[in-house]
Amino acid sequence: MSKEKYKLHPMSAVINFVKVLKEMIIPFIVVIVVNGFGGSEGSGDWSSYIINGIYGIILIFLLVSGIIKWKRFRYWFEEEELRIEYGLFVKKKRYIPFERIQSLNYTEGIFHRPFGLVKVKVETAGGGATKEADAELTAITKAAAEQIKQEMLQAKNKLPAELDESTGVQPLAKEEKRAIFKMSGKDLFMLASTSGGVGVFFSGLAVFASQFSNVIPYGVIYEEIVVFIRFGALIVVLAVFVVLLIAWIVSVVLTFINYYEFTITVEDEEIIITRGLLEKKKITIPLSRIQGVQVVENPLRQLIGYVTVIVDSAGGSLAEKDEKIRLLPIIKKTKITPILQEIFPELQLEPTLTKIPKRSRKFFYRLDYIWMIPVAGAVSYFFYPFGLFSLLLFPLSYGLGVWQQKTAGYYLNERQLVIQYRLFSKVMVWMEKRRIQSMTERATIFQKKANVSSIITTIKSGVTGASTTIPYIEKTDAEMLLNWYEPYRKTTIEKEQPLED
Amino acid sequence: MRAEPINKISKKGLRVWQIYGIFQTLIALLLGIGVWMINFFTGKYIWLYIVDVVIVLIVAYLLIYLFPKVRWTRWRYEVREQEIELQHGLFVVKRTLVPMVRVQHVDTEQGPILRKYDLASITISTAATNHTIPALITVEADELRGRISVLARVAEDDV
Predict the structure, then answer these.
(1) Are A43 and A175 in contact (CB under 8 A)?
(2) Which of A13, A95, A144, A302 counts the highest number of beta carbons within 10 A?
(3) Contacts of A340 (CB under 8 A, 6+ apart)
(4) Residues of chain B neighbouring A444 (CB-CB closer than 8 A)
(5) Could you give the ipTM of this predicted complex?
(6) For A257-301, how does the pLDDT look when each residue is reduced to its tens digit (9 = 90+)?
(7) Rounded Cα gap, residues A485 and A470, in angstroms
(8) How many CB pairs under 8 A join A and B?
């Protein structure tokens, strides 16, 4: 075990600088804009010099602090730990035992790629409380990244067998490496064009606008809008269309950049996802951390036969953004079986579902009527006659309820539970018995009378839990599920088919 | 038909819930007095006085008598060798099964009112969920906590 201390690549100084700059850009722009508005009213030249001077000083300060951060940063391997020393003013040290390391995630940004560098994020199992990754090496050469990995594997292999097993790294499986899925150009286009990215873009726009809300002279804009409206509705409609079109194109381009060359490989009992055009991202998920698998079909994509596959992974600072990892962002439904079969051989991919009894149907929509009756009543009364359209809510809600009832169902075998349900998108969830944290049977007074009850299962997802509900199944089936879940009790799993339907 | 869990919450727990109910009713009472005052200075509608009083009385009945009673009769728990089973709920009855191997830690907690009645609440946490038994006799709670932590072995790498 070498005790040589390593530095990061000098590029990390630049990257630190750019990163801070990026975080500051919005306040920066605001300051400049405000200043521009004030400054244009003939204040002296000297004041603009001072202001430019301040900007200059800030920039230099940021650059210098970036350099110092790089200068101060050291990492080395000692006593089977990854040790890091860093800090701008205060010197901090962090020691991470290799056996605690959950995964190493690599990212290659635009600044990394010309020099063959990577950013390495070290993630440990616990670290849920802190939002950031447990350790981040801003830029090191690929060889150095490989060295860290080797050190880690070496350290883990030295440990006794049972510990080794618990971290899910098997030395034997090392040679294994196969690309399981590569997203085709067509799939990429489908993903981009049907994604909710449009919404994201608009919310981004809203955020941007809110940043400027005290700068934009709304009064003036309002008057201009009034004039604008006089031009006629046609122009307005056109303008809206153009804006939507642009938003859509932007979202397509963004998705394209983010998901370019999306590839999944399985190596060392880990799933590795790589993607990205400008910034190459590499995410590692140990198979042993995966708690559940979901196939989601939103109605739009259901029409054209595309689905999304999501996995729930436990813990790790991955949780900051996506505890639900999109394993397959988009794929033809007909193609998922071989892929999932290869990654998760135990999953029962074509389960025969036990459906929801027909008498449960009313529970899917009845509760909604409670708020809909007064709302529709009030709207109809105050906005008569057009308010009467609100009455359409009732058949729509009924229709959705029936749709939900028809979709929902579950399948059970010795070790796993499969649940299918629909809120609006159709979702099928696979979970293993040993991954289920708790199971709850739930019934209202009315449901008790109808002899049905729901089952709620919770698995760990990210740092919290994710619950899935099997709605309103036969009471006897619900109890059978509880018996199935109850540990070490002899249970014969006999499928009780619903009497009706 | 699965049998209900055996143990009930201590009778003193019902008392405590009724005390909570009294506090909640006091808030409703203050609101009621507010309405009364406003009515006194502005409208002086007789019917509003009556409605005001009736609502406060109904709230008092529900919060102090009916809800605690139903809750108390519903509440059942059982700590078995391999699992914990809870049943509770006012309008919606929930029945939860937590296997011992999933339990990560157990906390007991005691507020001033609970302490006065020598009660404690006990919270069982898994990696993803929390489950609380609200009012147990302190000795019983401590004993239960001890038993659970003995029974709950460290989960393997399943989490």
Answers:
(1) no
(2) A13
(3) A293, A309, A347, A349
(4) 91-93
(5) 0.84
(6) 888 888 888 887 888 888 888 778 888 888 888 889 999 988 877
(7) 14
(8) 82
